[in-house]
Design goal:
Length: about 230
């Protein structure tokens, strides 16, 4: 539910003077009279407005209307710059989002790969249908083709997409680097970059085409491969 402050003139002398009011074609379930210049409309559902009109009708059958609401389509992330980051995240990204509103108050939440993007700021839109620019720091994560999604006022969420990828892992060395063949099993330390941000990021590690029986992620640059 949403509350609107409706400012104007000639709203009468009390609540009895207001017959009804509507926002976006939806009648206000609850009206609070504050003054002849201000009434409060409460209980409006967060839906897509059927019109941009704000209407007030007085008990004297006088009515007033103005096209004040800005209507938006479904939010759409159109670009992410840069469109990748290391698994530890923390990179500042500019996200262009169409129909996401015009200011910071219009943005409820931003996620990358289902994880919250931190330190969100918004560059106010210049209007004219231009996308809103949202800046935030990428969360830790892993994997390619991650969805960048924006939730706006009205609790509308942008469509899923594949506009972001975390950098693929790279192995630079292992220890021990030499092993005897046969029935002996080894625990091997693997060094590299972007190996993962959390244990759940590592599906498997293989050495010489043989998968480790278990893997322990130490950090994004080190992992232990057991019983290879």
């Amino acid at each position: 539910m949403q509350t609107f402050n409706i400012s104007g003139q000639g709203f009468g002398h009390s609540r009895r003077d207001i017959y009804r009011a509507s926002v976006g074609g939806e009648r206000c379930p609850e009206i609070t009279w504050v003054s002849a210049e201000l009434i409060i409309c409460s209980g409006i559902r967060m839906t897509q407005w059927s019109s941009g009109a704000v209407e007030v009708e007085l008990s004297s059958n006088q009515s007033m209307s103005a096209q004040l609401l800005q209507r938006y389509g479904a939010p759409r992330v159109t670009a992410v710059q840069p469109d990748s980051a290391g698994v530890t995240g923390g990179v500042r990204h500019a996200i262009l989002c169409a129909d996401c509103g015009e200011a910071f108050v219009d943005v409820i939440n931003v996620t990358i790969g289902g994880k919250t993007c931190e330190n969100v700021t918004v560059e106010s839109s210049q209007g004219g249908g231009l996308p809103l620019t949202i800046n935030c720091d990428s969360p830790p994560g892993a994997g390619a083709s991650q969805s960048v999604e924006v939730k706006t006022r009205g609790y509308r969420t942008s469509l899923a997409n594949t506009r972001f990828s975390y950098v693929a892992p790279t192995v630079t060395s292992i220890s021990p680097a030499e092993m005897l063949t046969g029935t002996i099993s080894y625990n091997v330390t693997v060094y590299g970059s972007n190996l993962g941000a959390a244990q759940s990021d590592v599906e498997w590690i293989s050495i010489g085409q043989q998968r480790c029986n278990a893997v322990l992620l130490i950090s994004s640059t080190e992992a232990t491969c057991f019983d290879v």
